[in-house]
Specification:
Length: about 80
């Protein structure tokens, strides 16, 4: 089987499900969306907005490793 992800407005959800439920379970499986999807999407959009507005800085891998080593020094 193949997977297709749809975005739809809440107003058409019931109507859409009625149409999809006409297919047999061997041909179509309705999978509930990941409950964290919207949360992660919002966080990514906020991070991107902060980046575009210059509110955050990007680090090179070397700088990132230096900061992590400073936070979590090896014994």
């Amino acid at each position: 089987m193949q997977t297709l992800t749809l975005q739809y407005s809440q107003e058409i959800k019931e109507e859409l499900l009625k149409v999809l439920e006409k297919f047999s379970k061997k041909d179509l499986e309705i999978i509930d969306e990941n409950p964290k999807y919207d949360q992660v999407k919002e966080e990514l959009h906020a991070d991107y907005k902060a980046y575009k507005n210059g509110e955050t800085k990007l680090l090179s891998i070397d700088d990132f490793e230096k900061e992590m080593n400073a936070l979590f020094p090896k014994e």
